[in-house]
Amino acid sequence: MSHPSESSGASPFPSAGAAARHPQDGEGVQEFDLFVIGAGSGGVRCARVAAQLGARVGIVERSHWGGTCVNLGCVPKKLMFYAAETGRAIADGPSYGWNVPLPEFDWPHFQKGKDAEITRLDGIYVSMLQKAGVTLFEGEAQLQGAQTIEIGPSALDPTRKPQRIRARHIVLATGSTPTRIDFPGSELCITSDQVFHLQAQPRRLAVIGGGYIGVEFSGAFRGFGSEVAISYRSAHVLRHFDDELRLRLEELMDLAGIHRHPHTLPRSLERMPDGLRLTLDDGTELAADQVIMAVGRHPAIAGLGLEKAGVRTEKGRVLVNSAFETNVPGIYAIGDISDKYNLTPTAIAEGQLLAERLYAPQGRYWDFNQVPRAVFYASPLATVGLSEQEAAVDHDLLIYTSSFTPMRQVMPHRPGKAFMKLVVDEKSDVILGAHMIGPEAADIIQIMAVAVVNGLTKTQLDHTLALHPTTAEEFVTMRTPTRRVAKGTVEALG
Question: Which InterPro entries does the UniProt entry name for this protein (predicted)?
Answer without folding.
Answer: FAD/NAD-bd_sf, FAD/NAD-binding_dom, FAD/NAD-linked_Rdtase_dimer_sf, GSHR/TRXR-like, Pyr_nuc-diS_OxRdtase, Pyr_nucl-diS_OxRdtase_dimer, Pyr_OxRdtase_I_AS
